[in-house]
Amino acid sequence: MKDVELPVAMQQVMAMQAEAIREKRARIIKAEAELEASEKLSAASAQMAGNPAALELRRMQMVAEVGAENNSTVVLMIPSDFVSLSKSLTEYLQELASSKSKSKS
Q1: What is the arithmetic mean of pLDDT over 72-101?
Q2: Which of 88, 61, 87, 86 is nearest to 75 (CA)?
C-alpha cells in the first residue's frame, strides 16, 4: 500500500482542530481545579469560623510566610472583631438612614 500525503491545507486544518481540542481540555481541567479549590476553601473557612483560635493561627502563619520572602510587602493585621463591628455598624447606619427617609415621607 502506498503512503498517501494529505494536502498542506488539510494538514493545517487538522492541526488547528487538534490544538482547539487541547485548549478545550486544558480549560476544563483548570475549571475543575478551581471548583475543587473553592470547595476546599469553603470547607476550611467554615471550620475556622467555628474556631477563632484557628483563624488567628492562620493569620500568624501568613505573616510568617510573607516575612520569610524578604520583600517589601506591608501586612496590616485587623482583628476579625473589627471587621464584624464594621459590618454591624454599616447595617445599623443603613437602617437608621432608611428609617429617617421613611419618617420624612
Answers
A1: 84
A2: 61
C-alpha cell at 32: 475543575
Reduce the DSSP state of residue 20 to 3 states and report it: helix
Cell numbers at residue 58, please? 492562620
Residue 77 burial (CB count, 10 A): 9
Convert the pLDDT of each residue in 33-42 to its tens digit: 999 999 999 9
Single-letter amino acid code for the residue at 10: M
User: Cβ-count burial of 56 within 10 angstroms (0-12 exposed, 13-18 middle, 19+ buried)?
Assistant: middle
> 79 with 52: CB under 8 angstroms?
no
Distance CA 46, CA 71 (A): 31
How does pLDDT run across 57-70, given as a tens digit for each residue? Answer: 888 888 888 878 77
Residue 39 amino acid letter = E
